[in-house]
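Q: I have 54 residues here and want to know how they pack in 3D. Can you give me a structure?
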Amino acid sequence: MTRSPETDYRDERAQLREQIKNADSETERREAILRLAEIDREIHADTYEKLARE
């Protein structure tokens, strides 16, 4: 059974959301937000490619 990218990243994304809420510094918060954005680009790579071509 194959898993979707969303499923593969679900736990990491949940952990990052908690890290953002509980961050002790703006740097820590920013790093977590950037990682969430990276995951989003990986999950939705085909959509980002399509938008880039338009």
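Q: Anything worth noting?
A: The chain has three helices and no strands. The mean pLDDT is 90.
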